[in-house]
Amino acid sequence: ERIKQAEAALGMARAAYFPDVALTAQVNQTRLSSADPLTGAPKQKNTLAYHTESYTLGIVASWELDIWGKMSRQSKAKYAQMLNSYAGRNLVQTSLISNMANIYYSLLALDEQLKVTNDMIVLMEQNLVTTEALKEAGMTTGDAVEQTRAALASAKTSIPDLQSNIRQLENSMCTMMGRKPGEIARTTISNQKVPTKLAYGIPAQMLAQRPDVNQAELEFRSAFELKNAAKASFYPSISLSSGMLGYSTTNGLSNFFKPENLFSSIAGGLTQPIFARKQLMTQYKIAKSDQQIALLNFEKTVLSAGQEVSDILYTFESSLKKNQDRDIQVNSLTKAVSYTQELLKAGEATYLEVLSAQQGLLEAQLNQVSDKLQQLQSTSDLYRALGGGI
Q1: DSSP letters of 284-349?
Q2: Taking Cα atoms as reference points, which of 65, 9, 17, 63 lies closest to residue 222?
Q3: CA 47 to CA 44: how far, in whole Å?
């Protein structure tokens, strides 16, 4: 809708090049007193008519010549504003795509965290059974059983929160798609491939595709044209103030369209501002300041865009460096859990060692899911930061 408004404003600005044309019709009636205004005596019949009527029908036109380019500058400013609205649409589109991708990846990550937690709960339930059996055999204490049961209950309390977060993200994604709340069909995070290297080209060229950079540039262009239009207001304006072509008669309507009743008139003028109570100078100063503000905003937008791209790339590369060490951590803790469980059964390990290994494995697995989520979201963030697919 804002694009439609901008297109309409551009059309109105371009229409200023053409004359204003209107159809006019007038009827004038004049009635005079029958008494002489000097003597008060009745007027003689042939000296002055008591009643006259005149009829006029024609086309009226007015037109200002754009000698100094004022209207041209205003039209260019409106054109830049229209392009700005297109860039705004692209910004919304790119942000929407990136946000949808990030929410989708977050859903996959929560699904995986829920799966990892449920798998760990199964291991902890088995550990609880083993600890209870060892207590019955007199190989451990009741404290070990209760500590194991408490750790299991703590892990189970995280399940409702994960499920709630999943439902909220699904509802949020449905709202963004204009749908009623419901489930989102999806795959698993393990099926998502993370690129090992991102191709992002020459930064300056890529940043030029960002909609917000385009908007800032177009705002500066509009301010530049409006400043020149304000400057052109100092120069004289030449206009066709009144031009008319039509018929006029005082002899009634019966012979109105006869050729002898055809008439035309034209009046032109030149207006040079001399004293306008500093209005023109103030308008020019304001327009000049607006141009400088737009330039500074443009520079700030470009610098912020470069920083955003740089931050995303560093985040992505740093996350990739964790993958190898994180795999080693998860594999080692998986083995540690298995070993401590066997040692517990043999009476050569305590329940605290088993709980510590299980908690460490759960934390490492959840962090591994977070690492992949960060990498996936960095790709969608970079898509947005470099202007998207516009």
Answers
A1: HHHHHHHHHHHHHHHHHHHHHHHHHHHHHHHHHHHHHHHHHHHHHHHHHHHHHHHHHHHHHHHTSS
A2: 9
A3: 6
> CA 209, CA 164: separation in Å to the nearest integer?
38
Report the candidate in 346, 81, 68, 388 with the shortest Cα–Cα distance to residue 209.
388
> What gap in Å lies between CA 159 and CA 157, rounded to an integer?
5
In the structure encoding, which two tokens stand for residue 25, read together? 């019709």
Nearest-angstrom CA–CA distance, 260 and 248:
9
Contacts of 11 (CB under 8 A, 6+ apart): none
Helix (H) or strand (E) holding 239: strand 237-249
Please say whether the beta carbons of 256 and 192 come within 8 A: no
| Under 8 Å between Cβ of 22 and 60 | yes
How many of the other CB atoms lie within 10 Å of CB of 100?
A: 15
Q: Nearest-CA neighbor of 366 among 332, 329, 337, 341?
A: 329
Report the alpha-carbon distance of residue 83 to residue 222 in Å, rounded. 10
pLDDT tens figures, 27-58: 887 777 666 656 655 655 555 445 677 878 88
Has residue 369 got a pLDDT over 70?
A: yes
pLDDT digit string, tens, across residues 179-194: 999 999 999 999 999 8
Tell me how far the alpha carbon of residue 120 is from its chain's centroid: 43
Locus of tokens 């055809």: 262
Round to whole Å and give the CA distance between 338 and 120. Answer: 12
**Residue 4 in contact with residue 62, Cβ under 8 Å?**
no
Residues 6 or more apart whose CB falls under 8 angstroms from that of 31 comprise: 50, 51
Residue whose pair of structure tokens reads 């060490």 in the numeric block? 325
